[in-house]
Amino acid sequence: MNNFLVGLQFLTRITVKKNLDWSEKACGGSVKFFPFIGAILGIIYAIFGYVIYFLLPQYNFNLSTHLIGFILLALNIFLTGALHCDGFTDTMDGVLSGRKRERILEIMKDSRVGAHGATSLILLLIGKFAMFSDLSSTIALTTLFLMPIIPRACMSNAVAHFPYARKEGLGKAFHQYSSKKDMLIAGFFTCLLSLLLGKIAIIAYVLTTLIMYSFNRYVSHLLGGLTGDVYGATTELGEFVVLFIFVIAQTFIL
Length: 254
Prior knowledge:
By secondary structure, the protein is mainly α. It is 74% helix and 0% strand. The longest helix has 25 residues, at 199-223. 46% of the residues are buried.
């Protein structure tokens, strides 16, 4: 339970009022629980979705699509404290710089945001806003529930499967004390949920996993491994991919 709560408190802004063991081993032990933590976020998103798409209209209170997009995007950022956005920005600053490995790692560690990171984050947020705005009530709850789960399974894969690029860093403990078994547990849980939620969910799971694995493989080849920032980027990009797949798929079922 300690390992799960460590992961929950690290990856989200959900407060856990308990004295936790924040050892490196506990951090690594939390990796298998990443999709379970995503499920908690998914339940919260789905509850908000139910209120927006089904409850409020019963009282003739219909929100505009743009307002819905803003509310869901703000909730998405708020619940994670923009942790993954920060990692995404640093990753894009480094990877898109066109420099060599050592310089890329220096850029990623720099607390200042560069043009590549800022531009990439703006595009990502606009994209997620557009996807949230275009969600139909038909698949909204399934999408909102699954959106945070699949990318966190991809993050478990990134942590456990690929080497760590730095000698030290915030994400090193997660990699060092995780294992392929943790990755398999995370993948099995996510695969099972996807199978239960239908064809689009299965497609989203398979495609997102393949896309994010390819992304992590590319970055690992570039840097000689991954970093904590890349873990965050994996989650943010993965959420966008899941949203994109569901929004595209809904055109064929409506």
